[in-house]
Amino acid sequence: MGSGRHRWKISFHRPPSTDPKTRHQAAPPKEFVCPISNTLMADPVIVSSGHTFERNCVQACKSLSFTPTLPDSSIPNFSAVIPNLALKSTILNWCTTSLVDPPKPLDLLSAQNLVLLLKSSCKTKSLEEKIELTRWPSHCSSSSEESVGTTPTSITSSDVETLIYNSSEEKDIITKLKSCEVHEQAAALVSLRMITRNEELPRVSLCTSGLLSALRSLITSKYASIQVNSVAALVNLSLEDKNKVKIVRSGIVPPLISVLRFGFPEAQDHAAGAIFSLALDDQNKTAIGVLGAMPPLLHALRSDSDQARHDSALALFHLSLVQSNRTKLVKLGSVGVLLDMVRSGRMTGRVMLVLCNLAASLEGRPAMLDGGAVGCFVEMLSRNEFDSVATRESCVAALYGLSHGGLRFKGLAKEAGAEVVLTRAEEVGSERAREKVRRILGVVRGRDDEEGEEIDWEELLNSGEVSRSRFQLGCGMDVSGSKSNLADP
Predict the structure, then answer these.
(1) Which domains does the chain have, with CATH numbers?
(2) Bias regions of kind Basic residues — which residues (predicted)?
(3) What pLDDT digit, counting tens, does each position of 204-221 carry?
(4) Which of 192, 223, 412, 419 has its CA 20 to 30 A from that of 428?
């Protein structure tokens, strides 16, 4: 901790503090630090590849025609720049709680000097380094003891032959993907789709920046077979956790969103699956939301395709785990759409997962109270016609989230007859669900009668009063998604 504190003072020029709260300051989270300037970001922006930088560092790179190679060997794409307001707010909150002065924006001249220094010191990697990079799956460390068993502990002659084959295969596929002949592109995509269908090693070794770049240009092809096979191959590549962040940073999400909006029906199915798969990684959630994936995902909930509907719902669930994305969903009018789906019995289980996340947010809660969510959920519990125990517990969890809506929730719950329904519900379900029901009943019953307080519930229902308490929500359902759910059929 001592050396970390010393670096912190040098980087941000903070004077020594005698306050005991600041004696053991930790370094800022790495996602708060610009990869180019190595300082806390004051004006963070997301670029097309999903990376986040200080704004003037991006401007300097563009003005000097320099594209850096980042520590994780990924290459950013600076074609578009979008303010990352959510991250900026998070950084400022962290500074406040950590007793750190807010960062000041880096001026353009300083940013250009930094980039010039990087540009002058940039060296081409040796052939040996490139070979070593292709071997990393066989000797990388794992964060879990259980996952080590899937990776060999040493390079064998068979592994080397496979890597050499895949390297040769990659070059051949990329050459054909870049061909001017449509039939060669189509053949290469079919080959790529077949190779990456079942095996992990081809998925990892073929997911290179060169192949992703070639694939990106074909995703929005006007030819149905090319568009469908390119997106399907991308789904296969995205199944490996090692590839998810790399794919988003390759700049492939915008054309993927375009396919989800305007593509051929089968390609739209695969596009929804690809976005769902990429959204499983926490590092991708904010970028996917900022790049505009949620409106077409919300629209895809009405698709004629079961696959597109279900994958879109799961993608929205994982994206809505991030506060900034929940805010976007509320502004898009998603609450009304999702509640209508629940009332009509369409994909109730998966839609309820998204509503649970919205009920946990300050923006989502009043929108759901306005949309009649309390009455809807109470009626669902009274019928007790759930497709699974998990869906029932999601309904309870959503009501628990709304119960933090203060007196307005209490009024709506009384109007819906929630006390009788919840009293019955308290007798069934898991202990976690029963505990939530008990807490909701505590809110509904309250202390009004004990204190002799008279409340005009009709006036209260129209007041829009909402409490600002926060809580953590657990739905008790595993929706992480398995490879077998997304794999190319």
Answers:
(1) 2-121 (3.30.40.10), 159-319 (1.25.10.10), 331-489 (1.25.10.10)
(2) 1-12
(3) 888 999 999 999 999 999
(4) 412
